[in-house]
Amino acid sequence: MNQTLMDHKASDQNEDFLFTYHKESGYIGFVWAMISVTVIEAAGVSFLLLKWSPLLHWIHLSLSILVIVFLLADLRAVKKNPITLKNNILSLKIGVRRTVTIPIKQIKEIRKGNLNYENDRKNKEVLDLSLLGLADPSFELVLEEPTENKDLFGKTCFKQRIFFSVDNQQSFYNAIIKKQQA
Contact, 118 vs 61, CB < 8 A? Predict the structure, then answer.
C-alpha cells in the first residue's frame, strides 16, 4: 500500500498539464473575419491594379496570399500548441510567435493580469503574450530573475514579467501553485 502511494506521488510530479488559450478570446472569429476581409480586399484592389500596373497587381496579390497563409498557420498553431506545464517547466508557445520556457522555481509570483497591464504593457521588462492585445490578459508572471528571450528579429532581450491568457484560469492557477509546493 505504501509503495502504491509513493508511485502515485511520483507520477503526480511528472504529470503533464495542458491549457488552451484561444477558446474564450474570440481569436478564431477574429482570424476568419480578417481572412474574409483580406480576400475581398485582395480581389477588389487586384482588379483595379491589374488595369493600372500588372506588376503591382501580382505583388499585391502575392502579399495578400502570404497574409492569408500566415493567418491560417497562426490559427492552426494556436489550436495545436497549448500552454504546457511538464516536468516543472512552464512552456508558453503562442501561435507561430516565440516560445518562452520557465522553470517553476523561477516564478516569484503569479497575479491577475489586469492589475498592471495597461500601465506596464509597453515596459521593456514586460513580455506581452496575449493573443489579440484587446482584452486584459488572465495572468502576470513575475520571475525571480529575468529570462532570456529573442524578439521577432532575433535580438536577445531579458524579460522579468510576462502577461498571457488562459481559458481555464482556476485550473491553471491551481496547477502552478501545486507544482511550486511540490
Answer: no
Instruction: Sort 97 into a burial class: Cβ within 10 Å, 0-12 / 13-18 / 19+.
Output: middle
Q: Tell me how far apart the alpha carbons of residues 120 and 128 are, in angstroms, rounded to a whole number.
A: 10
Write out the three cell numbers for 89: 517547466
The count of C-alpha atoms lying within 13 angstroms of the C-alpha of 125, restricted to the half-sphere facing its C-beta, is 11
Amino acid at position 157, single letter: C
* pTM tops 0.85: no
Chain centroid offset of residue 179 CA = 21
pLDDT tens-digit series, residues 112-135: 877 777 677 677 888 888 877 667
Which SS3 state, helix, strand or coil, does residue 85 take?
A: strand
The grid coordinates listed for 87 are: 516536468
CB atoms within 10 A of CB 129: 23
**Given strand 126-128, what is the order of strands in its sheet?**
107-112, 139-150, 156-164, 126-128
Grid cell, residue 96, equals: 507561430
Tell me the per-residue pLDDT of 84-118, one tens digit each, with 9 for 90 and over.
999 889 998 888 887 888 999 999 989 887 777 76
